[in-house]
Amino acid sequence: MRRSITRAEKKLLCALGVLVIVAVWQIAASVVSNRLLLPSPYETAVRLAGLLCDGNTYLCVFNTLWRVTAGIAAGTAAALIFAVPAGISERAGIIISPVEHVIRATPVASFIILALVWIKSGMISILISALIVFPVIYRGTVTALRNADRNLAETAQTDGAGKFTVFRIVAVPHAFPFFLSSLGTAIGLGWKAGIAAEVLCTPKNTVGRMLYDSKVYLETESLFAWTAIVILLSVLTEAGVSLIRRFAAKKITFMSVTEENSAE
Length: 264
Known about the structure:
- The chain has helices at residues 7-32, 41-52, 55-88, 90-105, 108-118, 121-146, 150-158, 163-201, 207-216, 220-263.
- The radius of gyration is 23 Å and the shape is globular.
- It starts with 6 loop residues before the first helix and ends with a helix.
- The protein is mainly α.
- Helix content is 86%, strand content 0%.
- It has a single domain, classed as MetI-like (MetI-like fold), CATH 1.10.3720.10.
């Protein structure tokens, strides 16, 4: 029987993985020996420190953070609104499925080009993040709801529980872990799509605009430094969501236990 990995061991292994990446990066930079093509970790760290001392950096980070976060939140909310009826009713799922397939199959670049015609460039990253997040959350939630324990639901109904109560104490606790898994994937995709939209649309005072300028002016250290900032923002967003979902998981468990005890 395998011993489970402790949290301290996980942190240690993650730190080791980061050290391996930095070591490989340093070796590659030494072999290339051209800072325009591949700056070293030290050169990138120096540029990153310079950016962190610049007030405009925080303005760019704030503008990008609230837009991408708003897009992820909007896409998640829309996905849940459509996923609940689709997960409960097969007919509703058939009606909604073409919308999901169109959003999933359309390239991000096509969405961005179309959005440039419809809305201001500063708001495009919100729309793109929402569109990318939507199918991931929708599909994961629908699948989880349809695979809920039907026997347990029928038992609860036999004991006199209403449909809403059954949905709350059976379907929601079952679907919640799948929703969280989908959300973790969606956050990463939402950040990538949102930053890509900013790079192509170049709204002022955003991280995407800074990445674009770094490429235009061949400031590779800045390109790597801004990329590190994007990675950090994504990690912090996922950490925030992790705290929220821990609280929600405890709340749902408490509600389920309370309802079951009431039914008894």
